[in-house]
Design goal:
The protein is an alpha/beta fold and about 325 residues long. The chain has three domains: about 5-135, P-loop containing nucleotide triphosphate hydrolases (Rossmann fold); about 140-200, Helicase, Ruva Protein, domain 3 (Orthogonal Bundle), CATH 1.10.8; about 205-325, Zinc Finger, Delta Prime, domain 3. About 60% of the residues lie in helices and about 10% in strands. The protein is built from 17 helices and seven strands. Strands 2-3-4-1-5 form a five-stranded parallel β-sheet, sandwiched between helices. The protein has a two-stranded parallel ribbon with strand order 6-7. Helix 10 (about 195-200) crosses helix 11 (about 205-220). It is elongated and about 75 Å long.
Length: about 325
Protein backbone atom coordinates (compact mmCIF):
# COMPACT_ATOMS: atom_id res chain seq x y z
CA UNK A 1 0.00 0.00 0.00
CA UNK A 2 1.23 3.56 -0.55
CA UNK A 3 2.75 5.61 2.25
CA UNK A 4 0.24 8.01 3.76
CA UNK A 5 0.25 11.01 6.05
CA UNK A 6 -0.86 10.49 9.63
CA UNK A 7 -3.90 12.70 8.96
CA UNK A 8 -5.01 10.29 6.21
CA UNK A 9 -4.64 7.37 8.61
CA UNK A 10 -6.86 9.04 11.23
CA UNK A 11 -9.42 9.83 8.54
CA UNK A 12 -9.57 6.17 7.48
CA UNK A 13 -10.17 5.15 11.09
CA UNK A 14 -12.86 7.80 11.52
CA UNK A 15 -14.62 6.21 8.56
CA UNK A 16 -14.53 2.85 10.35
CA UNK A 17 -11.73 1.32 8.28
CA UNK A 18 -9.32 -0.78 10.36
CA UNK A 19 -6.50 -2.22 8.26
CA UNK A 20 -4.77 -5.56 8.99
CA UNK A 21 -1.29 -4.04 9.20
CA UNK A 22 0.24 -0.64 9.97
CA UNK A 23 3.86 0.47 9.74
CA UNK A 24 5.47 3.46 11.44
CA UNK A 25 9.05 3.89 10.27
CA UNK A 26 11.78 6.48 10.75
CA UNK A 27 14.27 7.80 13.29
CA UNK A 28 11.84 9.93 15.30
CA UNK A 29 10.88 7.46 18.02
CA UNK A 30 8.65 10.02 19.74
CA UNK A 31 6.37 10.18 16.70
CA UNK A 32 6.34 6.39 16.40
CA UNK A 33 5.27 6.03 20.04
CA UNK A 34 2.70 8.82 19.80
CA UNK A 35 1.15 7.44 16.61
CA UNK A 36 1.12 3.91 18.04
CA UNK A 37 -0.64 5.07 21.21
CA UNK A 38 -3.23 7.05 19.24
CA UNK A 39 -3.85 4.13 16.87
CA UNK A 40 -4.41 1.72 19.76
CA UNK A 41 -6.85 4.13 21.41
CA UNK A 42 -8.86 4.64 18.23
CA UNK A 43 -9.03 0.95 17.34
CA UNK A 44 -9.89 -0.43 20.77
CA UNK A 45 -11.94 2.45 22.13
CA UNK A 46 -13.49 1.28 25.40
CA UNK A 47 -12.70 -2.41 24.83
CA UNK A 48 -10.63 -4.09 27.59
CA UNK A 49 -6.96 -3.65 26.69
CA UNK A 50 -5.64 -6.29 29.04
CA UNK A 51 -7.21 -8.93 26.82
CA UNK A 52 -6.81 -7.27 23.42
CA UNK A 53 -3.50 -5.41 23.27
CA UNK A 54 -0.09 -7.12 23.28
CA UNK A 55 3.30 -5.48 22.73
CA UNK A 56 6.35 -7.35 21.41
CA UNK A 57 9.85 -6.38 20.33
CA UNK A 58 12.10 -8.23 17.91
CA UNK A 59 14.98 -7.85 20.36
CA UNK A 60 13.25 -9.57 23.30
CA UNK A 61 10.49 -11.73 21.81
CA UNK A 62 10.11 -14.27 19.05
CA UNK A 63 8.27 -13.39 15.87
CA UNK A 64 6.30 -16.64 16.18
CA UNK A 65 4.90 -15.58 19.57
CA UNK A 66 3.77 -12.21 18.22
CA UNK A 67 2.14 -13.70 15.12
CA UNK A 68 0.54 -16.43 17.19
CA UNK A 69 -1.20 -13.84 19.33
CA UNK A 70 -2.13 -11.92 16.17
CA UNK A 71 -4.08 -14.99 14.98
CA UNK A 72 -6.06 -15.12 18.25
CA UNK A 73 -9.61 -13.79 18.27
CA UNK A 74 -10.30 -10.65 20.35
CA UNK A 75 -12.18 -10.87 23.64
CA UNK A 76 -15.22 -8.66 24.18
CA UNK A 77 -14.03 -6.43 21.33
CA UNK A 78 -14.25 -6.21 17.56
CA UNK A 79 -10.47 -6.08 17.12
CA UNK A 80 -7.26 -7.16 18.73
CA UNK A 81 -4.08 -5.04 18.53
CA UNK A 82 -0.60 -6.55 18.35
CA UNK A 83 2.38 -4.15 18.42
CA UNK A 84 5.72 -5.33 17.05
CA UNK A 85 8.62 -2.92 17.64
CA UNK A 86 12.14 -2.96 16.21
CA UNK A 87 11.60 -4.67 12.86
CA UNK A 88 14.93 -3.25 11.65
CA UNK A 89 16.57 -5.90 13.84
CA UNK A 90 14.82 -8.76 12.06
CA UNK A 91 17.25 -10.77 9.94
CA UNK A 92 16.41 -11.28 6.29
CA UNK A 93 16.44 -15.04 6.84
CA UNK A 94 13.59 -14.61 9.34
CA UNK A 95 11.27 -12.56 7.11
CA UNK A 96 9.29 -15.56 5.88
CA UNK A 97 6.82 -15.98 8.82
CA UNK A 98 5.92 -12.29 8.74
CA UNK A 99 5.49 -12.28 4.97
CA UNK A 100 3.26 -15.36 5.18
CA UNK A 101 1.10 -13.71 7.84
CA UNK A 102 0.77 -10.54 5.74
CA UNK A 103 -0.60 -12.60 2.86
CA UNK A 104 -3.20 -14.23 5.13
CA UNK A 105 -3.76 -11.81 8.06
CA UNK A 106 -6.38 -12.13 10.75
CA UNK A 107 -9.35 -9.97 9.84
CA UNK A 108 -9.94 -9.11 13.49
CA UNK A 109 -6.34 -8.08 14.31
CA UNK A 110 -4.50 -4.83 13.67
CA UNK A 111 -0.76 -5.57 13.55
CA UNK A 112 1.20 -2.38 14.27
CA UNK A 113 4.86 -2.60 13.21
CA UNK A 114 7.63 -0.08 13.78
CA UNK A 115 11.16 0.34 12.50
CA UNK A 116 13.86 2.99 12.81
CA UNK A 117 15.32 2.04 9.41
CA UNK A 118 12.97 1.84 6.39
CA UNK A 119 15.69 0.11 4.35
CA UNK A 120 15.79 -2.97 6.58
CA UNK A 121 12.25 -4.19 6.05
CA UNK A 122 10.66 -7.04 4.06
CA UNK A 123 9.41 -5.75 0.69
CA UNK A 124 6.01 -7.35 1.28
CA UNK A 125 5.56 -5.27 4.40
CA UNK A 126 5.52 -2.16 2.20
CA UNK A 127 3.08 -3.96 -0.09
CA UNK A 128 0.51 -4.83 2.58
CA UNK A 129 0.94 -2.26 5.37
CA UNK A 130 -0.51 1.22 5.69
CA UNK A 131 2.81 3.02 6.19
CA UNK A 132 3.47 6.39 7.84
CA UNK A 133 6.96 7.92 7.80
CA UNK A 134 8.26 9.26 11.10
CA UNK A 135 11.43 11.12 10.13
CA UNK A 136 13.08 13.98 11.99
CA UNK A 137 11.13 17.23 11.81
CA UNK A 138 13.03 20.40 10.94
CA UNK A 139 12.25 23.94 9.83
CA UNK A 140 8.57 24.75 9.20
CA UNK A 141 7.45 21.17 9.94
CA UNK A 142 9.02 21.33 13.39
CA UNK A 143 7.51 24.77 14.06
CA UNK A 144 4.09 23.52 12.94
CA UNK A 145 4.41 20.45 15.17
CA UNK A 146 5.23 22.57 18.22
CA UNK A 147 2.37 24.97 17.50
CA UNK A 148 -0.06 22.09 16.98
CA UNK A 149 1.10 20.32 20.15
CA UNK A 150 0.72 23.47 22.24
CA UNK A 151 -2.72 24.17 20.72
CA UNK A 152 -3.87 20.61 21.46
CA UNK A 153 -3.11 21.23 25.12
CA UNK A 154 -5.29 24.35 25.06
CA UNK A 155 -2.48 26.92 25.05
CA UNK A 156 -0.96 29.52 22.71
CA UNK A 157 2.73 30.26 22.12
CA UNK A 158 4.11 33.56 20.88
CA UNK A 159 6.56 33.55 17.97
CA UNK A 160 9.29 34.81 20.29
CA UNK A 161 8.62 31.92 22.69
CA UNK A 162 8.79 29.46 19.79
CA UNK A 163 12.10 31.00 18.77
CA UNK A 164 13.40 30.71 22.32
CA UNK A 165 12.37 27.07 22.61
CA UNK A 166 14.01 25.99 19.34
CA UNK A 167 16.79 28.53 18.88
CA UNK A 168 19.64 26.66 20.54
CA UNK A 169 19.16 23.54 18.44
CA UNK A 170 16.48 21.30 17.02
CA UNK A 171 16.40 18.41 19.51
CA UNK A 172 14.27 15.29 19.31
CA UNK A 173 10.54 15.65 19.81
CA UNK A 174 10.63 13.83 23.12
CA UNK A 175 12.83 16.57 24.58
CA UNK A 176 10.65 19.31 23.11
CA UNK A 177 7.51 17.54 24.31
CA UNK A 178 8.80 17.45 27.88
CA UNK A 179 9.61 21.16 27.70
CA UNK A 180 6.12 21.92 26.38
CA UNK A 181 4.57 19.93 29.23
CA UNK A 182 6.61 21.93 31.76
CA UNK A 183 5.69 25.23 30.09
CA UNK A 184 1.96 24.43 30.07
CA UNK A 185 2.11 23.50 33.76
CA UNK A 186 4.07 26.66 34.54
CA UNK A 187 1.74 29.16 32.79
CA UNK A 188 -1.41 27.48 34.13
CA UNK A 189 -4.58 29.47 33.57
CA UNK A 190 -2.72 32.23 31.71
CA UNK A 191 -2.82 29.92 28.64
CA UNK A 192 -0.28 31.96 26.64
CA UNK A 193 3.38 30.94 26.63
CA UNK A 194 5.78 33.86 26.22
CA UNK A 195 9.54 34.14 25.78
CA UNK A 196 9.82 35.08 29.47
CA UNK A 197 8.14 31.78 30.37
CA UNK A 198 10.55 29.83 28.17
CA UNK A 199 13.55 31.57 29.72
CA UNK A 200 12.21 30.88 33.21
CA UNK A 201 11.48 27.21 32.65
CA UNK A 202 14.12 25.92 30.20
CA UNK A 203 17.72 26.24 31.41
CA UNK A 204 17.37 29.99 31.89
CA UNK A 205 20.96 31.16 32.28
CA UNK A 206 22.30 29.11 29.39
CA UNK A 207 19.52 30.17 27.02
CA UNK A 208 19.97 33.82 27.92
CA UNK A 209 23.73 33.51 27.36
CA UNK A 210 23.16 32.04 23.91
CA UNK A 211 20.82 34.90 22.97
CA UNK A 212 23.30 37.43 24.33
CA UNK A 213 26.18 35.89 22.39
CA UNK A 214 24.18 35.90 19.15
CA UNK A 215 23.18 39.54 19.68
CA UNK A 216 26.76 40.58 20.45
CA UNK A 217 28.11 38.86 17.33
CA UNK A 218 25.30 40.15 15.12
CA UNK A 219 25.98 43.72 16.20
CA UNK A 220 29.78 43.21 16.27
CA UNK A 221 30.26 44.12 19.94
CA UNK A 222 33.57 42.63 21.09
CA UNK A 223 33.31 43.34 24.83
CA UNK A 224 29.85 41.80 25.38
CA UNK A 225 30.81 38.79 23.25
CA UNK A 226 33.95 38.21 25.34
CA UNK A 227 31.87 38.48 28.53
CA UNK A 228 29.29 35.93 27.39
CA UNK A 229 31.95 33.46 26.26
CA UNK A 230 33.63 33.71 29.65
CA UNK A 231 30.26 33.13 31.34
CA UNK A 232 29.53 30.05 29.21
CA UNK A 233 32.99 28.60 29.91
CA UNK A 234 32.46 29.17 33.63
CA UNK A 235 29.12 27.37 33.37
CA UNK A 236 30.98 24.33 32.00
CA UNK A 237 29.96 24.70 28.37
CA UNK A 238 32.43 22.78 26.12
CA UNK A 239 34.51 25.22 23.99
CA UNK A 240 33.70 23.37 20.75
CA UNK A 241 30.00 23.73 21.51
CA UNK A 242 30.46 27.48 22.00
CA UNK A 243 32.29 27.66 18.68
CA UNK A 244 29.46 25.76 17.00
CA UNK A 245 26.95 28.28 18.45
CA UNK A 246 28.90 31.16 16.92
CA UNK A 247 29.34 29.41 13.57
CA UNK A 248 25.62 28.64 13.52
CA UNK A 249 24.83 32.34 13.89
CA UNK A 250 27.27 33.19 11.09
CA UNK A 251 25.56 30.58 8.91
CA UNK A 252 22.16 32.13 9.64
CA UNK A 253 23.49 35.59 8.77
CA UNK A 254 24.88 34.22 5.51
CA UNK A 255 21.56 32.53 4.67
CA UNK A 256 19.60 35.73 5.30
CA UNK A 257 22.14 37.79 3.35
CA UNK A 258 21.55 35.51 0.35
CA UNK A 259 17.79 36.09 0.62
CA UNK A 260 17.75 39.87 0.93
CA UNK A 261 16.00 40.40 -2.37
CA UNK A 262 12.95 38.82 -0.76
CA UNK A 263 10.58 40.09 1.91
CA UNK A 264 10.96 39.01 5.55
CA UNK A 265 7.90 36.67 5.34
CA UNK A 266 9.38 35.06 2.20
CA UNK A 267 12.74 34.63 3.96
CA UNK A 268 11.05 33.05 6.97
CA UNK A 269 9.22 30.55 4.78
CA UNK A 270 12.30 29.67 2.69
CA UNK A 271 14.67 29.33 5.64
CA UNK A 272 12.18 27.69 8.00
CA UNK A 273 12.64 30.35 10.69
CA UNK A 274 10.13 32.37 12.72
CA UNK A 275 9.33 35.81 11.32
CA UNK A 276 10.83 37.60 14.35
CA UNK A 277 14.12 35.72 13.98
CA UNK A 278 14.40 36.59 10.29
CA UNK A 279 13.67 40.24 11.00
CA UNK A 280 16.43 40.37 13.62
CA UNK A 281 18.91 38.48 11.40
CA UNK A 282 18.10 40.76 8.47
CA UNK A 283 18.96 43.82 10.59
CA UNK A 284 22.17 42.23 11.84
CA UNK A 285 23.26 41.12 8.37
CA UNK A 286 23.52 44.78 7.36
CA UNK A 287 26.71 44.90 9.48
CA UNK A 288 28.38 42.22 7.33
CA UNK A 289 29.61 42.14 3.75
CA UNK A 290 29.30 38.89 1.81
CA UNK A 291 33.08 38.56 1.58
CA UNK A 292 33.40 39.04 5.33
CA UNK A 293 30.93 36.22 5.99
CA UNK A 294 32.79 34.01 3.53
CA UNK A 295 36.06 34.68 5.37
CA UNK A 296 34.42 33.73 8.67
CA UNK A 297 33.91 30.17 7.42
CA UNK A 298 37.67 29.95 6.88
CA UNK A 299 38.25 31.42 10.35
CA UNK A 300 35.87 28.82 11.82
CA UNK A 301 37.82 25.97 10.21
CA UNK A 302 41.05 27.43 11.57
CA UNK A 303 39.55 27.68 15.05
CA UNK A 304 38.30 24.09 14.90
CA UNK A 305 41.77 22.93 13.81
CA UNK A 306 43.39 24.94 16.61
CA UNK A 307 41.20 23.18 19.18
CA UNK A 308 42.31 19.81 17.88
CA UNK A 309 46.00 20.36 17.12
CA UNK A 310 47.37 23.27 19.20
CA UNK A 311 48.06 23.92 22.87
CA UNK A 312 46.43 27.34 22.73
CA UNK A 313 43.93 27.99 25.57
CA UNK A 314 40.32 27.41 24.44
CA UNK A 315 39.27 30.87 25.58
CA UNK A 316 41.98 32.47 23.42
CA UNK A 317 40.82 30.51 20.35
CA UNK A 318 37.22 31.59 20.90
CA UNK A 319 38.20 35.22 21.42
CA UNK A 320 40.24 35.18 18.20
CA UNK A 321 37.18 34.00 16.32
CA UNK A 322 35.11 36.77 17.91
CA UNK A 323 37.69 39.30 16.71
CA UNK A 324 37.38 37.89 13.20
CA UNK A 325 33.61 38.41 13.43
CA UNK A 326 33.72 41.88 14.91
CA UNK A 327 36.86 43.23 13.19
CA UNK A 328 36.89 42.17 9.52
CA UNK A 329 40.37 42.13 8.04
CA UNK A 330 42.09 41.91 11.43
CA UNK A 331 45.40 40.06 11.21
CA UNK A 332 45.64 37.84 14.27
CA UNK A 333 48.56 35.73 15.45
Amino acid sequence: MPRVLAAVLWKRLAQGQVDPCYLFCGEETYLIQAYTTTLIERILGTAPRDFNCDVFSVENDTLEDALGIARTLPMMATHRVVVLHGLQQLRKADWSPLEHYLEYPSASTALICSSSDPKKLPPRLWQYAVAVECGRLTGPKLHDWVTHTVTQRGYRMTSEALQGLLYEQEPDLQTIGREIDKLCTYVGEKQEITLADVQEVTQTSRLQSIFALSDALGTRQIGPAFTVVERLLNQGEPPLVILSMMVRHVRLLWSVKQQQRHTIPQMAKTLGLPFAVCRQLDAQSQHFAVEHLRQLYVAALEADLAFKTSNKPPRAILEEFILHVCMPGARLT
